Amino acid sequence: MTIQQLRYIVTLEKERHFARAAEKCLVTQPGLTIQLKKLEEEIGIKIFDRSKVPLEPTLLGLEIIEKAKRILREVDTVRDFVIEQKNILSGKVHLGVVSTLSPYLIPLCLREFQKTLPEVEFIISEDSTVGLMKTLETGELDVALMATPTGNPSLREFPIFDEPFMAYLPLGHKSSEQDSYELDDQDRANLLILEGEFCYNSQLLDICSLDTSNSFHNFSYEINSIETLKNMVRQGFGFAIVPLLSTIGQNGETKARSIPFSAPQPAREISLVTSDTFSKKLLVEKMSQAIWTSLPDSFKGNTTYKKVRWDDSPYFSKKIKQ
């Protein structure tokens, strides 16, 4: 016995005609007849007397139909409750943001979050991409803001924008006064990467066509933030690739300069990510709108980027297995 079969017999009782009932139920007349027969065989009771015109329910059939109507009202109540819950825009939302994005994007969009979702209390935390995926799967996070695609079938991704990568060079570098940057072998050998952020590093190594960082410096420094990377570059210790948002408002620098790569510019896709069981689509839509509204105008053009993935990187696969 299915909910659909109950809807069929209720409609048949109302229309007293197979063709009209089938049309109301958006099913073929043979399909409706087959389902009615299956239901009657399952319960061992004839619900309708087919010998009469118009069609009439049997005495037991009338009782079954009345019970079916009550069941369907309850089902509709549950459905309406679920829809209402999905559209609730209040309460606490645990939002995780990848650490290579959080310091630059959250200050931009926080006021728009408050304006668009005034009844939602955001609890925001930073983590690595791997950490965010794990806490989404365990339910510790509701939503994550991170680079995608993740390649994880248990997560759902809602892309918002593409963020281009920039070459970050010390003043005095041969390319520091150019309008665009072409990667050379010397910079490949001097690339600075982040400790622990394997997904971000995978993108940088892909841009440079490297399997691992080849920094020739005679020291080891476990760098954990983009700002530290930039400070290292300012002091002449290498070359960095940084996301565009991390360079906004820093055009007056005296020791380093950020330069866009030559077209097509490499970029990362930024998305809101949820578990595949997360049901509040309206919340995700409102958050996406708030983020997009908060972005600088330079992100809203029709620039074609070369999207850089990390989920299929050999470097990433090797690191997470260690």
Task: Report the strand count.
Answer: 10
Rg, Cα atoms, Å: 29 Å
CATH superfamily of the largest domain: Periplasmic binding protein-like II
Quick check: average pLDDT? 86
Q: Into which percent range does the helicity of residues fall? A: 40-55%
Q: How is the CATH topology of the largest domain named?
A: D-Maltodextrin-Binding Protein, domain 2
Could you say what the CATH architecture of the largest domain is? 3-Layer(aba) Sandwich
Question: Keywords, please?
Answer:
41% helix; 10 strands; eight-stranded mixed beta sheet; two-stranded antiparallel sheet; 11 helices; D-Maltodextrin-Binding Protein, domain 2; alpha/beta; 3 domains
Question: What does the model show?
Answer:
The protein has 322 residues and is of the alpha/beta class. It has 3 domains: 3-86, Winged helix-like DNA-binding domain superfamily/Winged helix DNA-binding domain (Arc Repressor Mutant, subunit A, Orthogonal Bundle); 91-162 and 269-321, Periplasmic binding protein-like II (D-Maltodextrin-Binding Protein, domain 2); 163-266, Periplasmic binding protein-like II (D-Maltodextrin-Binding Protein, domain 2, 3-Layer(aba) Sandwich). The protein is built from 11 helices and 10 strands. It has helices at residues 3-15, 18-24, 29-43, 59-86, 102-116, 129-138, 185-188, 198-207, 226-234, 281-294, 314-321; strands at 48-49, 56-57, 91-98, 120-127, 143-148, 155-170, 240-243, 256-260, 266-275, 306-307. Strands 3, 4, 5, 6, 7, 8, 9 and 10 form an 8-stranded mixed sheet that branches. Helix 5 packs across helix 10. The chain starts with a helix and ends with a helix. 31% of the residues are buried. The mean pLDDT is 86.
